[in-house]
Amino acid sequence: MTNSTVRPPPSERSGSDFARLSRKIADAGLLDRRPGYYALRITVVAGLYVGGWAAVALIGDSWWTLTVAVFLAIVFGQVALLAHDAAHRQVFRRRRASETSGRIAGAGIGMGYGWWQDKHTRHHANPNHEELDPDLDPNLLVWSQDQARAAKGLPRLIGRWQAFLFFPLLTLEGFNLHVSSVKALGNRSFKNRTLDGSLLFAHFAAYLTVLFWLLPPGMAIAFVAVHQCLFGVYLGSLFAPNHKGMPILTGEDRLDFLRRQVLTSRNVRGGRFTDIALGGLNHQIEHHLFPSMPSPNLRKARTIVRRYCEDLGVNYVETGLIVSYRLALTSLHQAGAPLRHPRVPA
Q: How many whole angstroms separate alpha carbon 237 and alpha carbon 321?
């Protein structure tokens, strides 16, 4: 897949519940691009990115530099959110401009754009589907009791207490992003592998050269650890509230596009600060229904979508941020139950 803007099949668009909702959203002008907003947002994030590295150079050989590592972990998360919006064509309507901007943002944080776009597109097409959503692959954690019963190796070991280990494990997510991006370069089905590889290794080279040039080796290693671990926690915290703890679909489940997206997603309540911190992903239901909708329009779309779902009798889930994490952790704990209480053979 080369386009992360997921569209339901024609049979679901023509006269469907989703088609009627789409007309309401389009009539409200919520699918229109927001060039001024994104120009300002890109300028601010780029300024913070450059300013963070300038601070590293200015502070230099001092342990206070680690405070900049914390700051840059947040900035890297914001860059990742911009790459996400660009990939969904929220920023630019045309594919080439979207891919170019997404690749530039991805290169800034050491993420392979082609790998991530393919993975994220498959997730949007089948969210929380046990066999089809790559975010539910039991590579390290198990997401259902069926996966727990079939687990072997590390997932079997970790799965027993994965709810308690979830946030500590997120400290590895930044490193996992880099490793997965590099591994994907060996997949010949991905286009532009040479370009993605060149951007990736250019990032790694520049990142490490700057740190080991400006800082003593021990301090540079500490900077990498603090920066990448907190970046991973921020990334994981952005996505954990959205689907974890929501119904998991299997091959037997056949839902139309609207219900497939709404019933597997959860919104997080909050104000403008929440919108900025989570990049609009707190309006996950609206984002999954309309992936190309600019993120500042999602809050306005929420009112329309929620009322529409209520009229249809479709369960629309919205919680606070802390509650969303609690539900996600509770779901992980329940998924690992078979590993804590294995059946004794008769």
A: 10
